[in-house]
């Protein structure tokens, strides 16, 4: 293992932004499925030899990626993805668990559009891990323009980061249908209540939903066309086909698959999740205006 070295895995929007940010203080390697013309780009094997890894690949791809590529060798890992696996309903910490000991893994959450981070604009992030020691190890890597906080509430951060993507789709629909700011604020506020209710079933802490991981990321994502998920909602409100919206987007919108996971989990555990349910139905083809009527009745 290359002691004290750090690599980002995944050179999409978020991986590239994290690579830029972390490179302010030290040399940081980066790797991706397809070679990129980026400073310190290395092959996957070289990256996996680093002591510190930041993994920024889409949530739905992680299990297969771990099975195919990953061998635990004492690495310390930060997971940058936000989503719940649709096929199993498992949270990312559950997917990583057979591969990485709990004390070696942390999860990044909080409001952080890659497009702003890559410009060096200020933001605040939470590193969520059962190990504060792990947070202390990663904290010095972050540049001055990113303020980091520690939380032990991994599941709270995971639920918040994943759920807000589904709510951002709903908010994009609201905007596209010109329902007004009152409706949008109501939707976002009720969405926050809904994600907390959902999270409680999995033992998430209420405080995570009121801070950066919950309200912070939700207010950001559900209020801006910079969000891919919000743009999916806008497209749906214009009666565009989901496959066309996603093709035009050309980047991951985690809320699409996460809405399937939430639907299955809320059925299994009998959780009241009206907004996520309607998003799921609209993604399956329901007219957004009918969804609105049903939401107002529910
Ligand atoms: N873009 C943003 O502002 C933020 C994104 N995130 C999260 O980070 C994750 C990644 O998002 P982005 O980088 O923005 O998406 P993106 O669509 O820009 O890039 C995804 C990257 O993952 C790689 N990838 C896809 N499938 C793969 C596989 N099977 N094996 C290896 N690599 C694979 C792609 O080649 C691409 O480089 C998502 O879970 C997203 O929710 C979190 C915070 C901010
Ligand atoms: O998670 C994000 C910002 O914190 C990015 O959101 P989108 O994936 O919707 O662009």
UniProtKB/TrEMBL annotation:
Per UniProt, NADPH binds at 14, 33, 82, 114, 228, 252, 254
- Annotated catalysed reactions: sn-glycerol 3-phosphate + NAD(+) = dihydroxyacetone phosphate + NADH + H(+); sn-glycerol 3-phosphate + NADP(+) = dihydroxyacetone phosphate + NADPH + H(+)
Q: Where in the cell is it found?
A: Cytoplasm
Q: Which GO terms describe its molecular function?
A: glycerol-3-phosphate dehydrogenase [NAD(P)+] activity; NAD binding
Q: Which residues bind substrate?
A: 82, 228-229
Keywords in alphabetical order, please: Cytoplasm, Lipid biosynthesis, Lipid metabolism, NAD, NADP, Nucleotide-binding, Oxidoreductase, Phospholipid biosynthesis, Phospholipid metabolism
Query: Which family, according to the similarity comment?
Result: Belongs to the NAD-dependent glycerol-3-phosphate dehydrogenase family.
Which PANTHER family does this entry report, sorted A to Z? GLYCEROL-3-PHOSPHATE DEHYDROGENASE, GLYCEROL-3-PHOSPHATE DEHYDROGENASE [NAD(+)] 2, CHLOROPLASTIC
Name recorded for this polypeptide: Glycerol-3-phosphate dehydrogenase [NAD(P)+]
Q: What is the organism field in this record?
A: Arcobacter acticola
Q: What is the lineage of its organism?
A: Bacteria, Pseudomonadati, Campylobacterota, Epsilonproteobacteria, Campylobacterales
Gene name, please?
gpsA
